Amino acid sequence: APAGDTQTVSGELRTADGVSILISININDPAEIDALDPATAGVGLMRSEFSVTSLADAANEERQLAIYRRVLEQAGEKPVIIRMLDIGGDKPLAGLEDLPALDPGLRGIRLLLARPEIARVQARALLRAAVYGKLSVMLPMVTFPEEVDRMRELFRDEAERLGRRALPHRMPPIGMMVEVPAAALMLDTFGSVAFFSFGTNDLTQYLAASARDAIDADAGNAAPAVLRLIAQAVKLAAGKPVSICGDMAGDPHYLPGLLAAGLRHFSVAPARRPAIRSAIIGLNADGTKAAGE
Ligand code: PEP
Ligand code: MG
């Protein structure tokens, strides 16, 4: 891009003082991949629970493969992070309501490890889809490193099985959501994780003891605590790729605090991009306003 151009075709932007910032998009419905224009870095979060909504879907490897493949092919050279099913909590899966109803803590990766037959099908679909683009896999609601280790083991098992069946596949990098406060505080213990992405929706909920549907009211008050936790966790990430995909990332109001916390990669709903882009151009990388703004 010519000097002075604030936006390149790669989805890279610069702050007023010249620090490079990436903006990716979050997608729910896979059709939203159409919003991936050249000015976007990639898909920072695809919530797979919007594509897999019943136990029948969860058991259907070919259907999942077709969905993930289409998204990856459409994204071309751009990286796509698909998050494994985050079911339980506020996101039910038709046919699997009982377990999380009995134990509200049983969601995300815990539920996947408790029902490994669901995780195995999704792992196979993702391993096979990885051949068609730049796929990374993200694990939801991780609390402990052992959970990541167990899921990686499951991926290795399934890769071996696919190999025995001579089905094309590739092992994707495996990263995790940072949305449980216990994980954020201990981020330096997640040595085998390829990348981190902050989920401020759940991080706020669990940090501030607020109901998820009350977050709009509580998020403002909890923001200083959430921002401090994120700043500490970014330091603990020790140079591994770090991004943020929670709703805070799409609200320009929080941008100074998130920049000051060290974040340089923001994944936001497609509709939030214009506001975030123009806000970044007017800020320095430490979150202060650019001179003349
Ligand atoms: C989050 O918790 O911030 C997040 C991005 O995940 P979800 O909104 O799907 O829970
Ligand atoms: Mg979440």
TrEMBL record:
Single GO biological process annotation from the record: phosphoenolpyruvate-dependent sugar phosphotransferase system
UniProt cofactor(s): Mg(2+)
EC number: 2.7.3.9
A GO molecular-function descriptor: kinase activity
Broad class of enzyme this protein falls into: transferase
Residues covered by the PEP-utilising enzyme C-terminal domain: 9-281
Record-given protein name: Phosphoenolpyruvate--protein phosphotransferase
Residues of the full protein shown: 242 to 534 of 534
